[in-house]
Design brief:
205 residues; mainly alpha; Four Helix Bundle (Hemerythrin (Met), subunit A); 10 helices; 0% strand
C-alpha cells in the first residue's frame, strides 16, 4: 500500500513537471521543471528495480547535462517573443507527429516482444548474487552488442555534426589557427628596444 502511494505521488509530480516543461514560457523555469521530471523518473526506475538506470539518470542528466543546459540558457540573451511566434504555425504539424510517435510506441510495447519470458536474457543463467548493474552489463555486451555499437556510431555522428555546426565561418568573429601558432618564431613575437636611461638622457642634454 505504501509503495503504491509513493508510486502515484511521484508519477503525478512527473506528469505535472513534464506538462510544465512544454507549457511554461520562461526557458529557465522549463529547465528546472525538466530537472524535477528527471528526478521523479529516477525514483520510479529505482522502485521498478532498475536502480542503475535511476542513479545514472540523476548523476548524468540532473547533475551534469541539465546544469550545463541551465547555465547556457541563463547566459544567453534569448528573445522569447521570436520563439513564440512560430508556435501556432508549427502546432498543426507537431500534433500529428506526436500522435504517430505515441501510436508506434504503443504498437511496439504491446506487441509482446518485450515480455520477460521472450527476452533472450531470460534464457541466460543468472547467478544468485548478480546485481542489476552486472546483469545489465552482461546483456548489453553479449545479446545487444550490435545495437549498442550502432547507437555509439549514431552518437559519434551527432557529435561531429555539432562540432561542424559550431565551426561555421561567421563574419566579425576571430578564429585560432593552431598551425600558425606552432610555427611562430621568436623574431615574430619579440622585439628588443634600446631605451636610454634617465641619467644618460640628462648627460646627452
Amino acid at each position: 500500500m505504501i509503495e503504491q502511494l509513493i508510486f502515484y505521488v511521484f508519477a503525478l509530480v512527473l506528469l505535472f513537471a513534464a506538462t510544465m516543461v512544454i507549457t511554461v514560457r520562461n526557458p529557465v523555469h522549463a529547465a528546472l521543471f525538466l530537472v524535477l521530471a528527471f528526478f521523479n523518473s529516477a525514483v520510479l526506475w529505482v522502485m521498478a528495480g532498475a536502480e542503475f538506470l535511476g542513479i545514472v539518470l540523476v548523476l548524468v542528466y540532473v547533475g551534469a547535462v541539465m546544469v550545463l543546459f541551465l547555465f547556457v540558457v541563463m547566459m544567453l540573451d534569448l528573445n522569447l517573443g521570436s520563439l513564440r511566434e512560430g508556435f501556432m504555425r508549427h502546432f498543426y504539424i507537431g500534433v500529428p507527429i506526436a500522435v504517430l510517435m505515441a501510436v508506434q510506441m504503443l504498437l511496439v510495447v504491446g506487441s509482446g516482444l518485450f515480455a520477460p519470458e521472450t527476452l533472450p536474457e531470460a534464457r541466460m543463467p543468472i547467478p544468485e548474487d548478480a546485481g542489476n548493474t552486472h546483469m545489465l552489463g552482461s546483456v548489453l555486451y553479449t545479446v545487444y552488442v550490435y545495437p549498442f555499437e550502432l547507437a555509439a556510431v549514431i552518437l559519434l555522428v551527432a557529435i561531429i555534426a555539432a562540432i561542424m555546426l559550431t565551426l561555421r565561418r561567421r563574419e566579425g568573429t576571430r578564429h585560432q589557427d593552431p598551425g600558425k601558432q606552432v610555427r611562430v618564431r621568436k623574431a615574430d613575437r619579440l622585439r628588443v628596444v634600446n631605451i636610454p636611461s634617465a641619467s644618460r638622457k640628462s648627460e646627452q642634454e
